[in-house]
């Protein structure tokens, strides 16, 4: 338990500090003079944020996994059947919403790429790429993890293990998730640049 908590904590610490370092470098490029005048305040805030965020991320996961007094565990001991039923219902609701919304999203992406007002804009191309990656990430997660709530599809995981496809399945989920997260970050940074220096970004 202590090892898993330390892994969660250090991973969250590394992610938060890496994000802050990237933002600090971006700010130093955009507003070098302003950052130099306030680098002490930014450093203090960054340190506090880097210490608080890992605790906030790690502790709930840790206690939800290992605490016997967790509210949900206590609640579901009595209503175990209802929990399985709810998980089954939520799974199919998720699939239904994905099937209903993804076609509209791809239609919108197609119209964006064909419309003269947007087809030559790189940020809209990036948004479309991010949306496609988000769709792929969802289906990769469904096929690698979420489908396990279906009791009549347990043979699916046996098939993956028998044909040595587990690592490939997990790899596809990680790649799609990484592309989706990175493009989301780049889009956010692009919007920040458009606010700070719209003319230079436009060029």
From TrEMBL:
Question: What protein am I looking at?
Answer: Serpentine receptor class gamma
Q: Which residues cross the membrane?
A: 6-30, 42-63, 83-110, 122-141, 171-193
Ordered alphabetically, the record's keywords are:
Membrane, Transmembrane, Transmembrane helix
